[in-house]
Amino acid sequence: MKYLGKHVFVPFISEETDSPIGVFEIDLTERYFSTMADIVEPFGNDIEEGGQCQENITDNQQNTNVKLFYNEWNYKHLEPFSSFTVEKMNELESDIDQLVEKNDAVVTTNDVSLSTKIDIWCKHFSKTANEFYGKILKVLKNNTDFPAETAIDNLYGENIAGLAESLQDYRIVDDDYAAMLIREKAEDDPLEIPSYVKDFDESSEYHIEDYGFNDAKLEESFNDWLDDQIDFCKERIETTK
Predict the structure, then answer these.
(1) Which residue did the predictor score with more confidence, 55 or 199?
(2) Residues 12, 62: contact at Cβ < 8 Å?
(3) By CB neighbour count within 10 A (0-12 exposed, 13-18 middle, 19+ buried), where does 204 fall?
(4) 221 and 214 in contact (C-beta within 8 Å)?
(5) Dihedrals φ, ψ of 43, to 5°?
(6) Is this prediction's pTM over 0.90?
(7) Alpha-carbon distance 65 to 104, whole Å?
(8) What is the pLDDT of residues 185-218, one digit of tens each?
(9) I need a labelling partner for 171 at 20 to 30 A (CA). Which of 75, 87, 120, 224 fits?
(10) What are the helix (H) ranges across 77-169?
(11) Cβ-Cβ contacts under 8 Å for 117 (sequence gap 6 or more)
(12) Are 104 and 123 in contact (CB under 8 A)?
């Protein structure tokens, strides 16, 4: 069986989550058969849902082959290959062949990065990817002339999956920082926590003036993030043409 010892990554469209970027994985690197799925956030730095979330492979026409494979083979999940008959192994190989041929599935000997999973998805769903990243690119460009604080608030209003995590990578949004502030308030006046928390969002590091966040540092970090994400979206759109 030619796929033993390999990973097979199959793109699908997730309609039940904030991000449509779904990748179904068939793992044949162990002594047993297993599948899993990731819903990747558009900037590629995190996943929205991962592991056993194959229920997000909907029955729409674009996911047909992937859904059929999952429904047919899910009962064998975590079954050792020693339990497969020769006929079943041949059938499994044939079904994977169809995914590789019809769904641009990628076969590798190693796991791949989230960014590569986005590339796999964009290649197969080029029209959807172009529209999806085109909308994000338009939103990003519309905020290039705003101060960082205003631009970030605008972006949060667009409900872009993974925005907070992406900003956190550039030290613009810091969940640990927010947790520290809440702990300090808890020691000071626990009853005031609800009203305190509602005054800041994930970008609390610069919204709480008492802690003196440097505005110049914010502008520099945000502009770096914005330039990188614009380039990232352009690259995804370019590769789908």
Answers:
(1) 55
(2) yes
(3) buried
(4) no
(5) -90, 0
(6) no
(7) 11
(8) 777 777 777 766 665 554 444 444 444 455 677 7
(9) 120
(10) 86-102, 114-124, 126-142, 148-156, 163-169
(11) 9, 21, 23, 38, 40, 44
(12) yes
